[in-house]
Amino acid sequence: MRMEKTKPTVTPIVIPSDKLQFLKKKLDDPHVSQFLKRDFIREIMGGTCSICQETPTKIVSYHLEGIVVIERYCDKCIERIDLH
């Protein structure tokens, strides 16, 4: 039995500007490791991009037979996925 994804709901991730400024500062800091940068992204944005692990800007949710699948994508990767 194969479950079909329904047409997804796409919503922008809204984060307060002070948290975004803090995240940008940490991501631009060459002394912060990639591991810690991803931890900051997960903490502030709720997770990383489902494809490239970078900072997500959109949440895509699919309804599948009683469950909701939530994925996060950056602007670059959301253009590459099929949303139909």
Helical stretch tally: 3
Provide the succession of SSEs: EHHEEH
**Which consecutive residue ranges, at least 5 long each, have pLDDT under 50?**
none
Number of domains: 1
Mean pLDDT: 90
Question: How many distinct beta strands?
Answer: 3
Q: What characteristic shape results from the CA principal axes?
A: elongated
Give the biggest sheet.
3 strands, antiparallel
The oligomeric state is single chain
Helical amount: 25-40%
Which structural class do the helices and strands define?
Answer: alpha+beta
Radius of gyration: 15 Å
Distance between the termini: 21 Å
* Share of β-strand residues: 15-25%
Q: Strand order across the biggest sheet? A: 1-2-3
Concise overview:
With 84 residues, the chain is α+β, with helices and mostly antiparallel strands. It is built from 3 helices and 3 strands, in the order βααββα.
Could you explain how this protein is built, in words?
This protein has 84 residues and is an alpha+beta fold. The chain has one domain (9-78). Helices cover 33% and strands 21% of the residues. It contains 3 helices and 3 strands. It has a 3-stranded antiparallel sheet with strand order 1-2-3. Helix 1 (17-28) runs antiparallel to helix 2. The longest helix has 12 residues, at 17-28. It is elongated and about 45 Å long.
